[in-house]
Amino acid sequence: xxxxxxxxxxxxxxxxxxxxxxxxxxxxxxNAIAYLASMIDSLYTMKVxxxxxxxxxxxxxxxxxxxxxxxxxxxxxxxxxxxxxxxLAVMDAEFNACIDYYRAKGVTxxxxxxxxxxxxxxxxxxxxxxxxxxxxxxxxKYTDKEIMLWPGSTDxxxxxxxxxxxxCYGVVDGGLAHTREEYVLExxxxxxxxxxxxxxxxxx
Length: 204
Hints:
Layout: E1 2-6, E2 8-17, E3 21-22, H1 32-44, E4 54-63, E5 69-70, E6 73-82, H2 85-103, E7 108-117, H3 125-142, E8 149-152, H4 157-161, E9 174-175, E10 183-184, H5 189-203
Parallel strand pairs: 1-8
Antiparallel strand pairs: 2-6, 2-7, 3-5, 4-6, 9-10
Helix pairs in contact: 1-2, 3-5
């Protein structure tokens, strides 16, 4: 596949703090893990906008100190992404409303921005098409697979966001991306090298 459009994203660390205490002696005190779980449930019941493709994910959670301790602290890593600037703005508003809702409950909610990637800007479509067509042609030359065009979150986000045509594509076959079982087929490296070098030499 050839990535020719930018998927923008926002990434956060969200931390919740409460008074905590002993699970028996201080029973009834607020538990940071319970509040974090509730927040995650709220975020996962959110309806995403439908202007483009928009997704969200909690990728990591942590917190607490022991089995008999009411957790004073818990945190998560959360992201949402979209190939639409307008839909990304909707997700911004929904996320901030969720944070405000839990702060209003009287617990401490700290939010740190971990990353932000922009969507497409205003791009000359004729120049973009010429670049994409060349990328597709190079890939077709060395593989018998159908070449798909897809949006992605890559190094191309920055140039695309400021109107500079850009494309990104891989040079290996494999599968199970972003899992512990992700793999690369060694035989795909040879045609992959050819794709990579012809791409570089063409623009050189």
